[in-house]
Amino acid sequence: MSAAWSMPVEFAPPRLAVVIDKHTYTRELVMASGHVGICVPGAAFADKAYAVGSSSGRDLGAGVFVCAGRTVRAKPLA
């Protein structure tokens, strides 16, 4: 996801504020589904995170990689 801007809002409960440009594929998917997933990668994934964030999901197969992890909390958008 190419977030234009993000910041922590609360620590208890944990909350983030994220701005996603309305012209991005990510925004289209979020608005259509009503769901969003936030992944905070560790330093070991910095290069991969940069590569994915620098390309569009519209370009399928353009350096796509998959990582497994655990969901801390999943909740529909209000």
From TrEMBL:
The lineage of its organism: Bacteria, Pseudomonadati, Pseudomonadota, Betaproteobacteria, Burkholderiales. Belongs to the flavoredoxin family. Residues 1-59 form the Flavin reductase like domain. This is Flavin reductase like domain-containing protein. GO terms for molecular function: FMN binding; oxidoreductase activity, acting on the CH-NH group of donors, NAD or NADP as acceptor. Keywords: Flavoprotein. Its cofactor is FMN.
